Sulfurtransferase (Microbacterium maritypicum), 279 residues
Amino acid sequence: MSDFMSAVELNDLLTRGEPVRVIDVRWRLDRPEAGHGDYLTGHIPGAVFVGLDTELSTHGEPSEGRHPLPSTAALQEAARRWGVRAGDTVVAYDDFKSISAARAWWLLRQGGVDVRVLDGGIQGWKAAGFDVATDDVRPEPGDVVLRPIGGDAISIDEAAAFPASGVLIDARAADRYRGDSEPYDPVGGHIPGARNLPEPVHFDAQGRILDRETILASFAEVGVTPGTTVAAYCGSGVTAAHTALVLHEVGIDAKVFPGSWSQWSNTPGRPVATGDQPG
């Protein structure tokens, strides 16, 4: 079963009245506060806005990273606010190649929810000719019970040791990996031994996921093939979840280092590699 759902498939489910909860997870690192406003300009009818910074993350010290994982209890409370009930299928979308929707997918999947990502996001929905709404949806609270989350995450120490036994993917842009620039964190570079494969390279210009063969070939270039032990990190654990989503779609399970570079670079004593080689 695919982790992605087309706009036509989603519309069919909604039209038939199937138990589906749609969540709008629009968010950008460069304008994190703008997501709700974008949602109000036009969203899938019935979709609930989800705050990535407030509901799919918690907050702590810089040494914990920018987007630490929420507790299972906090995520369950949020999911109930979205109206998610036991047995519902949750469909997440955004407006930028499923980057932030993947964070919701990664967390909810760990919690035992049947969760998919809308291929093409809100643009795909509009391109298919379906209507949008401008209300601020406040559903009746749901009753979903989540399994404990966090089992698909690795710690900073596990990330440091990971390249010795598997492939650690750095999903950030190449210039940040090399250390040429670092707009958000104290120092540029990468975790020693990590290999660079920026996301969202596996999506087309319309935000739709590429074919399986192309994706597998891309991961093979950094040493990831079916059966490889693999983990991913990025700046703060959002794009890394996107890498995990893409890998899962082609049958490869991956762990995520949620603290990512924001935690690594704020932790004294952690070594930093620079340049275009793992180091």
